[in-house]
């Protein structure tokens, strides 16, 4: 049934081998289009240029994507899956933590390094720039990216609260606070300045460690004298 | 000397009374231009339309602002003064606080309500949208807006640490954490979705109170059992 749906989506019945080729082409067009959008912005990008970059005909691009807006939308929403997968993987390790502060700090570092990827930052800026024109896309990215990552973290924190490593009433607020302390400054700097002076890995790791210490001081179950936010 | 400089900037020698009129016109053009930029975006705004909206000639607009980019830049940078003034005023009250949590929460509420102003959010989005084209403007807004607000808060937190209401080593990191917990979610939601579902004042106040509780739990000097982040 899954195969049937996928073939229908392409508008023609395909054998498994052909489908794979079609999937590969789909990915190649998305990858080429991402590069063009990031380099030229949404308005200045044409389907023709994307076709040239992908090494396919314009007709092939239109066979996969009805128009530029839908192609852009698919690229944007694909990034939310990437981010959520990373967070899910790393958050899972917190479920069997032997050293909570170390593991939470690792999660922070990983999250920050994924979010500060130059291409992802540029796509993020494109979503914001086009939010008035494509409010539905912005809303989807917010819900599937932002809110889903927060929900993943919240359920992780909830589990840690059950294991008495954290003390909290509202795990979603706690997730919100961790991410806010981690990302507010570096992501905003990149948004406003076009990431013209990217921070070193060591500097980003330092931000992750500081956010982790403050988070544990605020939400950890140990007495504050045992934590390090203000020491 | 100040008057001399100002007259020179206008390219003509003016008497005090004329200067005042010129200042008023300058403000009126900026106000009209802000409305047009916010409604139509940077690209679709023309100096002609701004002149019409301001009820002046195009020539008058050009007498005050050499080109569209400089007019836009002046509008954007003026908002950073507004924000910093508000924060400075409110932070000052923390210097004589009788009820630290209540006053910090007031600061959070005020800051959030200023930042969530619909017009300011739209200008913020315009800066991000044009950061590639005008990196210098984005950098100035980041430094004069972002970093200055953080510096104001940091010196406020530093004073509170001297009064033993806070316990911290790096006041700038602490300021960064307070603002991040406060703003990450509502500001980003507004950036991505065009603020299509603005939060109520009560909801924003709730965010401010939660950020305040977590901040005091992390950085307050009282033992954690006396604070409320996780209770």
In short:
With 231 residues, chain A is mainly α.
Report on the architecture of this protein:
2 copies of one chain form a homodimer. Chain A is an all-alpha fold and 231 residues long. The first copy, chain A, folds into 2 domains: 1-65, Homeodomain-like (Arc Repressor Mutant, subunit A, Orthogonal Bundle), CATH 1.10.10; 67-226, Tetracycline Repressor, domain 2 (Orthogonal Bundle). The first copy, chain A, is 75% helix and 0% strand. The first copy, chain A, contains 10 helices and no strands. Chain A has helices at residues 2-10, 16-40, 47-54, 58-64, 68-94, 100-115, 118-129, 135-162, 171-193, 201-219. The longest helix of chain A is centred in the middle third of the chain and has 28 residues, at 135-162. The termini of chain A are far apart. At the A-B interface, helix 7, helix 8, helix 9 and helix 10 of A face helix 7, helix 8, helix 9 and helix 10 of B.
Low-confidence stretches of chain A: 1-12
Assembly level: homodimer
User: Mind telling me the CATH class of the largest domain in chain A?
Assistant: Mainly Alpha
The assigned CATH architecture of the largest domain in chain A is: Orthogonal Bundle
Share in β-strands of chain A: under 5%
**Pairing-aware structural class of the strands and helices of chain A?**
mainly alpha
CATH superfamily of the largest domain in chain A: Tetracycline Repressor, domain 2
Radius of gyration of chain A: 21 Å
- How many extended strands of chain A? 0
Shape of chain A: elongated
Secondary-structure element string of chain A: HHHHHHHHHH
pLDDT average of chain A, as an integer?
A: 86
Q: What number of domains of chain A?
A: 2
Count the helices of chain A. How many?
10
Largest sheet of chain A: none
The interface involving the most residues is between: A-B, 53 and 53 residues
How much helix is in the residues of chain A? over 70%
CATH topology-level name of the largest domain in chain A? Tetracycline Repressor, domain 2
N-to-C terminal Cα separation of chain A, in Å?
Answer: 59 Å
